[in-house]
Amino acid sequence: MSIKNLIFYGLLIFVPISLAARFLGWGELVVFITAGLAIIPLAGWMGASTEEIAVVLGPSWGGLLNATFGNATELIIALIALNEGLVSVVKSSIVGSIISNLLLVLGLSMLLGGIKYKEQDFQPVMARVNASAMNLAVIAILLPTAVGFTSTTIPEITLQNLSDAVAIILIAVYGLTLLFSMKTHTYLYDVGTADYEEAPVRPSQSLSPESAHPSEPEHSPNLKLWIPVLIGATLIVAVESELLVNALEPATEQLGLSPLFTGVILLPIIGNAAEHATAVTVAMKNKMELSVSVAVGSSMQIALFVAPLLVLAGWVLGEPMDLSFDPLELVAVAVAVLITNSISSDGRSNWLEGTLLIATYAILGFAFYFRPALGVVAG
């Protein structure tokens, strides 16, 4: 069993600890920390069970299942926060998920993979397609923000209607990207898929009883095991997410952190930890094609599917959410997309390029951390 999965097993202890902290009144800070730690292994189990079920469903339906549940943890946390009226935190977590995948995850993958293999290759065509989709995401949040910024007298309902229209377009584009990757241009993704099936790094490979025999020519997942695991992990993630969100504001006040920093930096790391570990591990196995697919694909899914879905969900929940973001959040996404597209356009990576991405993430992190202090001085 890998060290990563040993850690995930160990972190499961925080599920009962977080529940005890809530019901025994150990304080909001303890609830926040333990619930966050509990979500990390549960997200790993969700990913593992989704991948096992996808093997049985086949490439098309399996790809759709993976695409749907790829960011399920972040979506659950965001929906609960939205239902609690924490719209600014939801927007911050969207931005944080995008930049953490593009800068932190891809940066660590390129850095650690580059140290071991000097240079690694991935398909530049796939990188350009992903880059174009991320450029669309920047446009989608830039225009509603610009409209709200340049028209101070614009009614809120007008901005909301604009966001709803943009959200519908983004979801339609996301559907077309699935059609592109799973039907009309599957050959562009064949290499990454083959690497994924061969790479012995998924959480499912240590959790699955069938995976104990790697010499077997075919892997036949046990659906009677993995469907209940997926349902159970999803339900527990929902419970832990509610604990996390309810304790978020008092806990961040005790830690001296702003809701903006918490949403952009802390929540995405919690929700994406399992996926982050997978991307970095496969890069160290010299499978950079898959690592890029995981990191950039996750960001693309957040931008084209999760964010617009939350806009529409806000309308259903009675908690209106538009696509007008804080200017610093908008700058962060634009910077992350710009440098990622620049580095990945040639289809090659090395440790220095990984360092540049991590450095960019660190600079943005400091900007979000010192933002409240700057606001106080300006006042």
How would you describe what is shown here?
It is a single chain. It is built from 16 helices and two strands. The termini are far apart. The chain has helices at residues 3-11, 14-23, 28-57, 59-69, 72-83, 87-117, 124-150, 156-184, 190-198, 203-207, 223-246, 248-255, 259-284, 288-317, 327-344, 351-378, and strands at residues 119-121, 348-350. It is mainly alpha-helical and 379 residues long. It has one domain (3-367). It is globular and about 45 Å long. Helix 5 runs parallel beside helix 11 (223-246) and helix 6 (87-117) runs parallel beside helix 13 (259-284). Helices cover 81% and strands 2% of the residues. The chain has a two-stranded antiparallel sheet with strand order 1-2.
Give the rounded overall mean pLDDT: 83
Number of strands: 2
Q: State the helical fraction.
A: over 70%
Strand content range:
under 5%
Provide a count of the helices.
16
What are the secondary-structure elements, in order, as H or E?
HHHHHHEHHHHHHHHHEH
Spatial ordering of strands, largest sheet: 1-2
**Overall radius of gyration:** 20 Å
- Overall, the morphology is globular
Short description:
The protein has 379 residues and is mainly alpha-helical. The protein has one domain. The chain contains 16 helices and two strands.
Question: SSE layout and pairings?
Answer:
Blueprint lengths: L2 H9 L2 H10 L4 H30 L1 H11 L2 H12 L3 H31 L1 E3 L2 H27 L5 H29 L5 H9 L4 H5 L15 H24 L1 H8 L3 H26 L3 H30 L9 H18 L3 E3 H28 L1
Antiparallel strand pairs: 1-2
Helix pairs in contact: 1-3, 2-3, 3-4, 3-11, 3-12, 3-13, 5-6, 5-11, 5-14, 6-13, 6-14, 6-15, 6-16, 7-8, 7-14, 7-15, 8-14, 13-14, 13-16, 15-16
